[in-house]
């Protein structure tokens, strides 16, 4: 029974993919979208069933479909593990995935390749399910590479635009860099433990098996490189903002629920290994904190509504890695969950705005939309309050716990994370005020067509806004259902901080910081009615931030162009050498042929003479050899 349910869980989205690939063009748009949505909804229902079962029995479910490979004492099964961690990921991947599919039925209705879009979405969900349910690193790697492929297909979905194709290629290549590190990490763990199975490695660590900590540190660092690529950490983060090239539902799927959370999932899954390498943990924490701050700085001045949300995602992911590096894995998971709620709501809300504005994404050309789009505005406001860390919304609880752990473990990292959080509140309310408040700044034609989005778009927004409000209650400081639920995942249970005076002081500081950020945004964009100037009017440090610290330009100058130059030199050298060798062979052959034609003169007497000379030479050689 469990095996059958697992197969349904995995194969329902894959069946939706196959249906839309082979029959999507032959059926109506609504049928194509409905089939794709039902496929993911089936997986969500099965995930709920497994959640209740595991929550009741407290026992993980291991299902081996078949034995995959044996190399000496190295064995790998094609098997899947359903436990507390994988079930949590399944719930929000398939649950939010279902809402995004519903949203896409309306949002993408007029696209000529609607069936292809739903096929790619279904395939994305299939690979994400594979990633989080695999019982070993090789199965995880299949899903890991699969979501990378699907991100390439979806980011470059509107392939007639070359910039979108470039963004897709950039995401694919930068993820390949991280994936190489991940693959080396897998090989290293296979060498150290003669296994890549999670349960086997965890048992070995728990039993005190001696392991070379130098090689283990190398392995976990390589795994972190893989996580940095998927979850957009410095220096492999620049692909994620460019991923905005894809349709807005793709942005919501990648940024909120699926691909970018893969790195956090993998590190949390292997928490028992990272606990043995504290130096690598500190690197993770520092990189996470710096990423959070840098991305927050960049988001301060962006004017594209989706770009602001994209850099916000990078910043929030940095906070999650900060928690991972400090050993607070369950808090990182908590923020993953709440972030999935409010970030999906924000991206889908931005899509609703873009839909009403006929494709316009520049906030300088918006304004006053709350009068025309009340549902979108209210849901967007709730999600903005959540990400800004305002009580009682979901983001307040998860972000506050990260800051609390950072305060107790490393004051410098706490300061960095707190600054990033204050900036988050500022740039998110800057976005809200520029988009929904004051007077409309677009064209008269755009004003004439302003309207609330259809119910298929607003329904997911309402559900996500509710989750953004109540989602934080799964983990109260000092009394957390989530922490208790995740305990079997960890070997070393982290001592939970008790609610005391320090806890309330830190909460107060975080809330005051958020209110300061909101207050500055209100002063600038409501009281002073400021509107960002044209691109050519941006100067000073704002220009540096607007151009994202020129990181892309630096990468282009330091890495890309030298590689192009080396490739061009190699191509020309190889072509020259190869063509010279081949043409040289031709010339030698031609010379031999020319001399051969001299000998082949048609004289029978000459031929007989050569024959006699040759025969005499052979006889003489044989005589002398005796």
Automatic annotation (TrEMBL):
Domain named NADH-Ubiquinone oxidoreductase (complex I) chain 5 N-terminal: residues: 68-118
GO cellular component, as recorded: endomembrane system; membrane
Keywords for this protein: Membrane, Transmembrane, Transmembrane helix
Protein name: NADH-quinone oxidoreductase subunit L
NADH:quinone oxidoreductase/Mrp antiporter transmembrane domain residues: 135-424
Coiled-coil stretches: none
Gene Ontology terms describing biological process: ATP synthesis coupled electron transport; electron transport coupled proton transport
One Pfam family in the UniProt entry: Proton_antipo_M
Entry's transmembrane regions: 34-54, 87-105, 117-135, 141-159, 180-201, 213-240, 252-274, 280-301, 308-326, 332-354, 375-397, 412-436, 456-476, 504-522, 604-624
Main location: membrane
InterPro entries named among the record's database cross-references: NADHpl_OxRdtase_5_subgr (IPR018393), ND/Mrp_TM (IPR001750), NU5C-like (IPR003945), Proton_antipo_N (IPR001516)
Organism, scientific name: Flavobacterium microcysteis
Membrane-related topology note: Multi-pass membrane protein
Location of the protein in the cell: Endomembrane system; Membrane
Gene that specifies this protein: nuoL
MF (Gene Ontology): NADH dehydrogenase (ubiquinone) activity; NADH dehydrogenase activity
């Amino acid at each position: 029974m469990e095996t059958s349910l697992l197969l349904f869980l995995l194969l329902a989205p894959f069946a939706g993919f196959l249906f839309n690939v082979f029959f999507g063009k032959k059926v109506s748009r609504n049928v194509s979208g409905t089939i794709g949505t039902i496929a993911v909804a089936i997986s969500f229902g099965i995930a709920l069933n497994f959640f209740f079962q595991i929550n009741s029995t407290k026992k993980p479910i291991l299902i081996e479909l078949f034995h995959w490979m044996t190399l000496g004492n190295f064995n790998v099964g094609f098997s899947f593990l359903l436990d507390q961690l994988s079930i949590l990921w399944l719930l929000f991947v398939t649950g939010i995935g279902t809402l995004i599919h519903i949203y896409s039925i309306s949002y993408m209705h007029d696209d000529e390749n609607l069936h292809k879009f739903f096929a790619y979405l279904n395939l994305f969900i299939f690979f994400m399910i594979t990633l989080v349910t695999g019982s070993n690193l090789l199965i995880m790697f299949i899903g890991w590479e699969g979501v990378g492929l699907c991100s390439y297909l979806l980011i470059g979905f509107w392939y007639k635009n070359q910039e979108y194709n470039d963004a897709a290629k950039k995401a694919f290549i930068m993820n390949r860099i991280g994936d190489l590190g991940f693959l080396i990490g897998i090989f290293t763990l296979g060498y150290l433990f003669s296994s890549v199975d999670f349960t086997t490695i965890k048992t070995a660590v728990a039993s005190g098996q001696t392991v070379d900590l130098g090689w283990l540190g190398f392995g976990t660092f390589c795994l972190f490189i893989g996580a940095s690529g998927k979850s957009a950490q410095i220096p492999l983060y620049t692909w994620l903002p460019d991923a905005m090239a894809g349709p807005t539902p793709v942005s919501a799927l990648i940024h909120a629920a699926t691909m970018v959370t893969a790195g956090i999932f993998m590190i949390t899954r292997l928490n028992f290994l990272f606990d043995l390498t504290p130096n690598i943990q500190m690197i993770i924490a520092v990189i996470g904190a710096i990423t959070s701050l840098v991305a927050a700085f960049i988001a301060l001045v962006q004017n594209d509504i989706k770009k602001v949300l994209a850099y916000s995602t990078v910043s929030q992911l940095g906070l999650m890695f900060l928690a991972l590096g400090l050993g607070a894995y369950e808090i990182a998971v908590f923020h993953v969950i709440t972030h999935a709620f409010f970030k999906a709501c924000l991206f889908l809300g931005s899509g609703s705005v873009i839909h009403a504005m006929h494709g316009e994404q520049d906030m300088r050309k918006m304004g006053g939309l709350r009068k025309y789009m009340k549902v979108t505005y209210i849901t967007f406001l709730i999600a903005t309050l959540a990400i800004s860390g305002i009580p009682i919304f979901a983001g307040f609880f998860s972000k506050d716990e990260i800051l609390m752990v950072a305060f107790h473990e490393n004051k410098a990292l706490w300061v960095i994370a707190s600054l990033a959080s204050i900036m988050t509140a500022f740039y998110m309310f800057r976005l809200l005020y520029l988009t929904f408040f004051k007077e409309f700044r677009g064209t008269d034609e755009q004003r004439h067509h302003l309207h609330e989005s259809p119910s298929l778009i607003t329904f997911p927004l309402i559900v996500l806004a509710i989750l953004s409000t109540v989602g934080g209650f799964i983990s109260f400081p000092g009394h957390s259902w989530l922490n208790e639920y995740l305990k079997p995942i960890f070997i070393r249970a982290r001592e939970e901080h008790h609610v005391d005076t320090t806890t309330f002081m830190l909460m107060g500081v975080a809330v005051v910081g958020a209110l300061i950020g909101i207050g500055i945004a209100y002063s600038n964009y409501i009281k002073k009615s400021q509107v960002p100037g044209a691109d050519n009017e941006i100067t000073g440090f704002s220009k540096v931030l607007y151009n994202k610290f020129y990181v892309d330009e630096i990468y282009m100058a330091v890495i890309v162009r030298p590689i192009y130059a080396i490739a061009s030199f190699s191509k020309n050298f190889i072509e020259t050498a190869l063509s010279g060798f081949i043409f040289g062979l031709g010339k030698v052959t031609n010379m031999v042929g020319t001399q051969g034609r001299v000998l082949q003169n048609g004289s029978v007497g000459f031929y007989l003479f050569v024959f006699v000379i040759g025969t005499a030479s052979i006889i003489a050689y044989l005589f002398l050899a005796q």
